[in-house]
Write a structure and sequence with these properties.
The protein is α+β, with helices and mostly antiparallel strands and 117 residues long. The protein has four helices and seven strands, in the order H-E-E-H-E-H-E-E-E-E-H.
Length: 117
């Protein structure tokens, strides 16, 4: 997990901050949580696509200050950027995550973009 750990040396103690041009998304119940732009979120195309598609799928999307505890409490965690798309995070420390929502998002985004082209 070195790649994910390296993103957690936040500018606010105990809060994740991404350093590699990616956004982190946490899934808890029907909520998608992500840092707002002033707390490490990266403004960009893929972030907008994920937020839009998740909203269409019935998720409530909240942007704000995330804490490490939020990541530990989440059911799922994934990263996104325009170059790599959506990347599921398997674990943080001993916490293991599901891969359900990220797979559904990838499928939904692919179907939407295939239908457009």
């Amino acid at each position: 997990m070195p790649a994910f750990r390296s993103t957690l040396d936040g500018h606010t103690p105990g809060c994740p901050r991404l350093l590699a041009g990616s956004n982190i998304f946490l899934v808890k119940n029907q909520k998608l949580l992500t840092p707002d732009l002033s707390n490490g979120g990266v403004a960009g195309v893929m972030r907008n696509v994920v937020v839009h598609q998740a909203t269409k799928m019935g998720f409530q999307v909240e942007a704000g200050l995330l804490r490490i505890e939020d990541a530990i409490d989440a059911d799922e965690c994934f990263l996104s950027n325009a170059t790599r798309g959506i990347q599921w995070v398997a674990a943080v420390g001993k916490k293991r995550y599901f891969k359900k929502v990220s797979e559904r998002l990838v499928s939904s985004i692919n179907q939407t973009h295939v239908a457009i082209s």
